[in-house]
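Quick one, probably user error.
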């Protein structure tokens, strides 16, 4: 699984830029309600720009397994992010690597999703009516040291400035950013992307060494 994902990419230029700066994965949003929506036709050039350089991740919200399968098959994408309210029965029908986005709210713990059929989790802050990319920050200390049988990725309000501290407090396997490295929704700032990746990799490296010593 990837360590650093730049999500909400809308152009081949930004995708290539993110990959060249060291991003492990690029998120492409196929949810029509998103400000960062990309049509399957427009996604062809984005996927092509990072083929062999970074992992393309197709982001969906409450889409049918059939539609997900068709889009990913045409684009040759094998990793999807389920960012809606997809029940386990739907996730089981998706024959791809699955990342389940969990939008935390008061009274809801990550552990409640332990048995969800997926390969990894993405933990984000809840924002009513939204499905990610809001810039809303989680209480990192609240989820610090969360023990799951699957890898989990931290999202929600991350920026080049706070990502190092967020990793220190939350101790995730990887991190995901969208609005924190943008000029406007869907348009990435190369300087912010570069600094985010540098700081994220520094924090994740420190965390990995800490875990190895335990």
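Nope, works fine. Designed sequence:
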């Amino acid at each position: 699984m990837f360590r650093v994902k730049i999500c909400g990419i809308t152009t081949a230029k930004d995708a290539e830029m993110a990959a060249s700066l060291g991003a492990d994965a690029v998120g492409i949003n196929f949810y029509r309600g998103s400000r960062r929506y990309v049509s399957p036709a427009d996604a062809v050039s984005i996927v092509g720009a990072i083929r062999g350089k970074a992992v393309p991740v197709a982001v969906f919200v409450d889409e049918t397994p059939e539609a997900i399968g068709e889009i990913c098959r045409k684009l040759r994408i094998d990793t999807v992010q389920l960012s809606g309210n997809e029940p386990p029965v739907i996730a089981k029908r998706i024959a791809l690597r699955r990342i389940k986005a969990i939008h935390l709210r008061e009274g809801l713990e990550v552990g409640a999703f332990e048995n969800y059929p997926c390969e990894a989790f993405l933990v984000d802050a809840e924002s009513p009516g939204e499905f990610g990319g809001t810039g809303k920050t989680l209480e990192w200390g609240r989820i610090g040291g969360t023990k799951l049988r699957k890898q989990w990725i931290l999202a929600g309000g991350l920026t080049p400035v706070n990502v190092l501290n967020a990793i220190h407090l939350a101790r995730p396997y990887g991190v995901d950013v969208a609005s924190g490295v943008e000029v406007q929704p869907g348009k990435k700032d190369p300087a912010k992307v570069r600094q985010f990746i540098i700081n994220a990799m520094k924090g994740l490296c420190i965390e990995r060494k800490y875990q190895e010593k335990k």
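Residues 4-213 form a domain with the TIM Barrel fold (CATH 3.20.20.70).
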